[in-house]
Amino acid sequence: MNKKIVSAVCSVPIVVGGLFTAINDGTADYPLRVREEFIRDYTGKFEGCRNRSYLDTGGLETVGIGSTHFNCGKIVTGKIYSNEEIAKRLNKDLWVAEQCVNKYFNGANLPQNKFEAIVDFTFNLGCTKAIGTVKMTGIRRYALLGDYKKMCYEQMKWVKGRNRKGELVTIQGLYNRRKEVTEWCLMEN
Prior knowledge:
By secondary structure, the chain is mainly α. Helices cover 53% and strands 8% of the residues.
């Protein structure tokens, strides 16, 4: 990704647009199957864009559009990240999520909307949680069985998180995200 994405503010449309310009002209680090529209209107909408690190609802240090240290390396606290740096992190994070979906969810055979929905789910949770750490997740099971309707609806079971007291509660932002992505997932391609 050689082109500079210029902006003084971290903006989902600018970062995602710059990433997909780089993908389309062959200068991005990683090719992606997900479409610009989905990443901008769903993943980006719910993750937001921040050019300085912050703690997400799970307490993980995060920067840009939902990027943690897991895929892209250390996050420098206090650093102001450029839109280009954020786009590079997003490119790698999405590519890692796509690889997980391809390997564990039979991604190559998923219709486009279903693929994008599961990539968003995996991007949000990480591959290990998305596939199941002890027991296979329902989303993965239904994807492998080809029962895409159940696979899509299964996302609504993943709307809870721990509050500051450690109690498991429904997180409104996760509920809203899962609801909208489930609707996208259910659309026919």
